[in-house]
Amino acid sequence: MSSHTSETTTDAVAITASRVRTTPAHAPNQKHASRRALLALALACAAAPAFAGTSGSIALTTDYLFRGVSQTNQKPALQAGVEYAHDSGFYVGAWGSNVSWLSDTVVVGDDISSSLELDGYLGYRGKAGEIFSYDVGVLTYYYPGSYPSGFNSPNTTEVYLGGTLAPSETVSIGLKYSYSVTDLFGYADSDGSGYLDASLNWTFQPGWALNLHGGKQWIEGNKAFEYTDWKLAVTKSFDNGFSVAAAYSDTDAEKALYTNAHGNFLADSAFTLTLSKAF
Question: What is the dihedral angle through the alpha carbons of 245, 247, 253, 258, rounded to the nearest 10 degrees?
Fold first, then answer.
């Protein structure tokens, strides 16, 4: 998601993310429509002009992890985002990715048909002094598709507040808290859930960065599903806007709760590679 990334770790690579949930199978009709929609978003991002505060990115990753949990049943994802930032500090953006965690809750049948995540967000970025910056905003995660009667909507809205301390040109330390004002990704009675994200980014050589991330997910009314996640990544950025990142992540999530209908533990330790192009 644009520069807003779901995780505050400013991985110079992809606009990537993931969600807390347990399971995965695509209904063919919805899958093809979602691929077309995602491709359209990617093309719009690529066509976005690099002036007037507009920026964008396209990324291909081996696994879409959000807060340490695979959103694609440990399979690759194509992602794209675009953002407009005004000189005043206000910004607005959109981001999208293929997903499968909702449809993967069943192995057969098409009671759930959803294979696309579309996010929209707006916020304000500012500075307080020379080395401290802050970011406040609202973000909505939207999952188009068809769901059985009585299914609790996975669509989620969070408000967030983050701060970054940059004591030098090569080091930044970030802290961000996200608070859900709706049920969190389909968990019943879970509004008021929170996620705390801490990050450290160090440019140790020109074009090379080390990214450290640690996070804690709290889920109101669903304490058993709460967990901690962490990540270590190295990013190589090139002058032409391309970047490559290699990351290792893990969680302490309960295996029985985060294993989907296909038998895959979605919150397991994972090594991912991501190629992205910024515009």
Answer: 60
CA-CA distances (angstroms) from residue 167 to 11, 200, 203?
18, 12, 13
What is the Cα–Cα distance from 6 to 9, expressed in whole angstroms?
A: 9
Read off the pLDDT of residues 176-197 as tens digits, 9 standing for 90 and up. 999 999 999 999 999 999 999 9
The amino acid at 224: A
- Cβ neighbours for 253, distance < 8 A, ≥ 6 positions apart: 68, 69, 225, 227, 229, 267
Q: Which amino acid is at 111?
A: D
- Which of 248, 263, 254, 261 minimizes the C-alpha distance to 219? 254
pTM score of the predicted model = 0.84
> Are the beta carbons of 128 and 161 closer than 8 angstroms?
no
CA distance 136 to 121: 11
Q: What residues does each domain of the chain span?
A: 28-278
pLDDT digits (tens, 9 = 90+) for 227-267: 999 999 999 999 999 999 999 999 999 999 999 999 999 99
Element (H, E) at 32: helix 28-47
Name which of 207, 211, 272 is nearest 241 in CA terms: 207
Contact 165, 173 (CB under 8 A): yes
Q: Facing residues of 135 across strands? A: 125, 162
Q: Would you identify the CATH topology of the domain 28-278? A: Porin (2.40.160)
List 124's β-bridge partners, or say none: 90, 136
